[in-house]
Amino acid sequence: xxxxxxxxxxxxxxxxxxxxxxxxxxxxxxxxxxxxxxxxxxxxxxxxxxxxxxxxxxxxxxxxxxxxxxxxxxxxxxxxxxxxxxxxxxxxxxxxxxxxxxxxxxxxxxxxxxxxxxxxxxxxxxxxxxxxxxxxxxxxxxxxxxxxxxxxxxxxxxxxxxxxxxxxxxxxxxxxxx
Length: 178
Description:
The protein has four helices and eleven strands; from the N terminus they run E-H-E-E-E-H-E-H-E-E-H-E-E-E-E.
């Protein structure tokens, strides 16, 4: 388990506004020195300018330094994250990757993690699951994960049915204001 204040954002797939929600939450709470992590279960070719923190066959961790790209980790940095990382890791190796990440981050860090599979391995302080309007098309794996979320948000007509401004850090914990 992670000993940090973690907001985990997962979803049913691409184009449900996960990164948009994450960036809005970071921008709203940037005074709390948020560290952002984008997790991808796919391995992509890295740029020569990428700052590789750790690379094995099991996972690759890159620190994002550029605010001027359309990569999710870059958008998170631009939104106000103190640091932003991009983790390439298949789901089975997520526990090893998270164990390593814990060793390089300051204790009591405020994390925002966008990941489809991490919810199976950690218990975050707050877990937001985003789905689209076609809820009946959700895969069983996503449905099981969605049941563990603190809040399920629906993405419809390019907007969420939830106001991201209700996600805050109070007394060093992610909470939803009601």
